[in-house]
Design a protein that fits this description.
This protein is an alpha+beta fold and 181 residues long. It is built from 3 helices and 10 strands; from the N terminus they run βββββββαβββαα.
Length: 181
């Protein structure tokens, strides 16, 4: 049944290649025979973590996001290095972004962020048993760390204070795992 949805790639061009993403333009043939173009951002795979401390606070980062034009409240996240396991990337990113490591890392889900135009695949984790362990942050990052009670996060989502999709997905997954808390 899904064969009727398949598209055949006839040609691929990459007019831009960058550090973390490439622009790919595929010429495709639809099952109907019609030819069309698909613009795709190729992005490295990534991780996001929901760090929850012993007092049931979620640790967030607030950082300016140029495409959004403002600072966003987000879960710690980052790209995976070539050949790096998602769990190792999660622990590294926790150290770089919030200065902690986690004794417990529970995989929540893996998902595409924007499959209509980007191939980035993200792995989400619950991180508990937080202990200080700092790694050098990326030199192009300027972030603030904020701790917010887990009982407050649903209101922050509903009133628009949290409007980043990976953060919303991660928090909803953790709320399901941890219960109402």
């Amino acid at each position: 049944m899904t064969d009727i949805l398949n598209e055949e790639t006839l040609n691929t061009e990459r007019p831009y290649s960058g550090k973390i993403l490439n622009l790919r333009i595929d010429t495709i043939k639809l099952p109907s025979g019609r030819v069309a173009a698909r613009e795709v951002i190729e992005h490295i795979d990534s991780v996001c973590m929901v760090p929850v401390d012993d007092e049931n606070n979620v640790w967030f980062v607030r950082q300016f996001r140029t495409p959004a034009g403002r600072a966003l409240l987000e879960l710690p996240a980052g790209g995976m290095d070539d050949g790096e396991l998602a769990s190792d990337a999660a622990l590294r990113e926790l150290q770089e972004e919030i200065g902690c490591t986690a004794d417990n890392l529970q995989h929540l889900a893996s998902f595409f962020l924007a499959p209509g135009w980007c191939d980035e695949y993200m792995h989400a984790y619950l991180a508990t048993g937080l202990t200080p362990s700092k790694l050098e942050a990326d030199d192009d990052e300027n972030i603030l760390i904020e701790k917010i009670p887990i009982s407050d996060v649903m209101n922050l989502i509903q009133n628009g204070d949290i409007d980043d999709v990976k953060t919303i997905a991660g928090l909803l997954l953790v709320m399901q795992v941890l219960g109402d808390n």
